C-alpha cells in the first residue's frame, strides 16, 4: 500500500508541484482524495442488479373472453368506390 501511494504521488503529485508549487500540489492532492472518496461512495452505493426472472406466462381463464363474433354486412355501397373484381373459382381435375 505504501508503494502504491508513493507511486501515485511520484507520477502525479511531483509534476504538479513542479508546475504549481507547494500550494498547487496540496490542492491537487486534496482534489484527488476527494475524487477517490466520491468513487468509493458511488461504488458502494451502486444499485444492485435485480436477478433476472424467467418468463412465466400467466394463465388467463377463457371465461373472461367470450368467443368473438364478427358481423359483416354487404350493401350495394360496399364496393361502389372500387372497380369490380370478378373472382372465378376453378376446380382441379381429380
Helicity range of the residues?
40-55%
Large-scale geometry: elongated
SSE-based structural type: mainly alpha
Number of strands: 0
Gap from first CA to last CA: 91 Å
* Fraction in beta strands: under 5%
Largest sheet: number of strands, sense, barrel closure? none
Q: List low-confidence stretches.
A: none
Mean pLDDT: 73
H/E element string?
H
Number of helices: 1
Radius of gyration: 39 Å
Organism: Mycobacteroides abscessus subsp. bolletii CRM-0020
Protein name: Transmembrane protein
Transmembrane segments: 20-44
Keywords: Membrane, Transmembrane, Transmembrane helix
Q: How would you describe the overall organization of this protein?
A:
- The chain is mainly α.
- The protein has a domain at 2-47.
- Helix content is 46%, strand content 0%.
- It contains one helix and no strands.
- The model has no long low-confidence stretch (mean pLDDT 73).
